[in-house]
Design goal:
Blueprint (H helix, E strand, L loop, with lengths): L1 H19 L2 H10 L1 H12 L8 H18 L8 H19 L5 H21 L5 H7 L4 H12 L9 E4 L5 E3 L16 H16 L2 H12 L4 H8 L3 H27 L1
Antiparallel strand pairs: 1-2
Length: 262
């Protein structure tokens, strides 16, 4: 009964905001959806070992929530929570970028590693070994693994990394392309379908431990600490496996984008 009453009150707030531009209704909607901001931020920050203040991230995400409420159009056919999640993620990532959390040199190395994974795995049609990627980068294997470690403890690598923007200006992340049969699909396009198909192929081709880390974290929503206990690995090892898996995925998807444009 309480839940029904809450839904009715929320619907009334949406009506007051969208029909009358009542700012008090907008503010009430922001307060009502703050738990969503905290949920999204918690899930994003659980992949980062870097010291990032949670309250700062929530503040960044709240700006995304406000933008989502102001821009949400129910006529487009998807749920507000789905739309708001995109905006919250984007606002947090934009906030981190503006504060230069990651050195430019590390970002450059990240792009080089992503490109190397894309090239080598396309040529080999299988998951590349560390030595093969290091060789393509003309980098000693010890330096390559040290770089992976530095990336794994930064907030740079995540399935929340932006892949592209759609025609409406909405950002699409790698995580948005993972198929969830129980989730409503807000967009249906040939390109998105091809990205999903490619991603599923790459997921099945990942080395077993990397695939387990991705599956447990993004599908089952286990924390890295929980995954480390399940797989009997150290937390840092789980973080590094996650880093390599994500660069394989991003490399394959970036190559697909190039093919779609050509």
């Amino acid at each position: 009964m309480k839940q029904l009453k809450h839904l009715e009150q929320t619907d009334l707030l949406w009506t007051r905001w969208q029909h009358d531009q009542d700012k008090q209704a907008r503010d009430a909607l922001v307060v009502a959806h703050l738990p969503l901001v905290q949920k999204v931020v918690y899930k994003m920050s659980s992949t980062w070992n870097a010291a990032v203040n949670f309250d700062d991230l929530v503040s960044m995400g709240t700006l995304g929530l406000i933008e989502a409420i102001e821009r949400f159009d129910p006529m487009r056919g998807y749920e507000f929570v789905t739309f708001a999640t995109w905006r919250i993620r984007g606002a947090v990532l934009d906030g981190l970028r503006s504060q230069d959390w990651v050195p430019r040199s590390l970002r450059t190395k990240a792009k080089e590693i992503e490109a190397a994974y894309a090239q080598v795995e396309h040529e080999l049609l299988r998951s590349a070994e560390d030595e093969e990627i290091a060789q393509r980068l003309n980098m000693p294997i010890t330096e390559f693994r040290q770089t992976l470690y530095e990336l794994s403890v930064s907030p740079l690598v995540s399935l929340d990394g932006i892949l592209k923007s759609d025609d409406a200006g909405s950002e699409v992340t790698v995580a948005d392309t993972i198929i969830d049969p129980n989730a409503a699909q807000p967009e249906t396009s040939i390109e998105r379908s091809m990205v999903q198909e490619m991603l599923m192929k790459v997921l099945t081709r990942l080395p077993e431990k990397e695939r387990l880390v991705v599956t447990l974290h993004y599908y089952e929503e286990f924390s890295f600490k929980d995954i480390a206990e399940i797989l009997e690995l150290s937390g840092s090892r789980v973080s590094q496996l996650h880093t390599k898996a994500i660069y394989r995925l991003r490399g394959a998807l970036s190559r697909l984008k190039q093919e779609l444009r050509s």
